[in-house]
Fold:
Amino acid sequence: MRDVAVVGFAQRQMTDYDGSPQCAELLVPLLAECYEQTGWTKKDIGFWCSGSSDYLAGRAFSFVSAIDAIGVLPPVNESHVEMDAAWALYEAWLKIQTGEVDTALVYGFGKSSAGVLRRTLALQLDPYTMTPLWPDTVSIAALQARLGIDAGLWDERAMAEVVDRSLTDAEKNEYAVRAGGSSVEDLLARPMFADPLRKHDCAPVTDGAAAIVLAAGDRAREVRDRPAWITGLGHVSDGLHLGTRDLTQSESAERAAASVGGLDGVEIAEVHAPFSHQEVILRGALGLADDVRINPSGGPLAGNPMFTGGAIRIGEAARRVWDGTADKVAGHATSGPALQQNLVCVMEAK
Amino acid sequence: MAKVPAAVVGVGQTHHRAKREDVSMAGLCREAMDRALEDAGMTLDEIDAIVVGKAPDLFEGVMMPELYLAEALGAAGKPLLRVHTAGSVGGSTAIVASSLVQAGVHKKVLTVAFEKQSESNAMWALSVPVPFVMPVHAGAGGYFAPHVRSYIRRSGAPTEVGAMVAAKDRTNALNNPYAHLREEKTVEQVLGSTMLWDPIRYDETCPSSDGACALVIVDEDVARSSSNPAWIHGTVMRSEPTTAAERDQVNPQAGREAAATLWRQAGITNPLEEIDAAEIYVPFSWFEPMWLENLGFTEEGAGWKLTEAGETGMDGKLPINCSGGVLSSNPIGASGMLRFGEAALQVRGAAGDHQVDGARKALGHAYGGGSQFFAMWVVGADKPTN
Structure:
């Protein structure tokens, strides 16, 4: 395997992106930030890959106009996944591993405020048997949370502790859509939203975009003193059908962690858990030790732009290697109903 | 660092029809996958990862259908990737799947691309009005007709060349049991069909199909146990914007650059002499001569001469779309992978009644969007030496 590192990261997160029909405009300043961080121009990028969703945009080919943000004359080597940009990063990493290119720029974007997100995401279910019933994302997550509470695996207090810590940490994140810790008691006193979930247990509906730069070997070293070298990158899917899997566990997250040789020695983990109880599930499934610092950025409960939320976790984790806060970190991404798909990216200083 | 050698050892496709009421989306994919696995002599359990491709989700009305399909595709417990690059997606998906092997990450990868257009309404799906963006409510033919007219004007091609392509591809499809449209056509019949978007006639357009295509792509060690692997000699993707004042939509720069890169990767200096069969994405008949030029098989302005001389027929110098091509079957998301898969069948000597005798190197080509996304590969009967 080639040594490949995360060397650039830019993001925007907001409750709604007023006045734009698409996210091309949102991407332009992010790409500019990546050029500034790396000292490179468009010509230095060997491969481009994006993650987004046509359904979120409410139109076919939503990624087509997004490539205008790159400025693609002369043409570029480019691809797109209809997934979170974390999986676009995976495709870009593959491309670098083939030796065809040495550098890649990955971006993702999503404008959740354009529709009713929890209802739009119901269209991810089985179209013949489930979607006609319109079970929405929050309700499915509530079922999952209830199953775990009934099984004695966690309780509402444990969920509130995740929220309190996340929102306290989010006070230091300029991009956080929601921030401000209070106390576990205060959180538990708030009204139910979808029993047993309170609003703060659910990631806020968020618009946004992010971009990440990958580079191999010396190209990475020319950008940063401490590149975040990717020492493990893997992803696994579960089946979708809710009745066929144990929703209190995440088998695919466990397998993804195993595929990168486990997460031993990780000091900081940015975990993509859009619902508070999912952090509890993931902590176990990923095998994170008790002393691992989780989501110092505030995590998805402070802001979760669709199709970018996972990639942001990788970018946030990489930053902790760049600035010397940690020597070994992990970024995690999820996709699909109730943690169906999971990706793990382990990064280290060398 | 060099790529790990990779080869196609299994190709499967569905019977393509306007409406496959006998299968769900899952059933459609499995029909292609099961044939590909049987061809490869493998079971789904042996597969390391699944890569899925299709065009916009609005074509079926399901958001990210690979999530619901995960179990049916045998992807539960495995890595599952979903690619979407407009009409070129079938080709891009095959390239992403091959990169999983070429990167040295996996040994046996199954990739499937599909479109079940009858589940929704493709014309509607492509016609959602977007503020501040030029509307294209006339369908794909309406978008491409001006490019065709411009090509005819620039090249001085006789106006029946498009009809010659349509008659050839439709007649070729008679030799392909999986083709959607299976009807012998003469040039006169095509010229006599209704004018839809001048100068594109009804018989010069592709159908709208339900269908899927699947490939099994493996590394060198696994390929050794196959009697007829199709070795991957080169892969390429290029993208350019939909609109830009300086853009040449008749002969797009992205296609020209992609082809040049592809030939270089595959060690090909004279594609017309060295390629034995080509599956080129021709949804409207005039794209055959246009892409012949764009791909560098001929000089600019000379593509139609090759077509007119019959050199792109089954017995010609460069047989194109012996399977019947997109003009005979067009499940959009799968159409590119069908081109890639048919190219593999040719060099494996497994193309049945539409086999080109002694084909050793073949091209698979796909394009998408407003002639702006390109995906191509060259496969060969021999392991690449470069």
Notes: The two ends of chain A are 16 Å apart (CA to CA). The domain at 133-203+232-348 of chain A is CATH 3.40.47.10 (Peroxisomal Thiolase; Chain A, domain 1). Chain A is about 30% helix and 25% strand. Chain A has a mean pLDDT of 96.
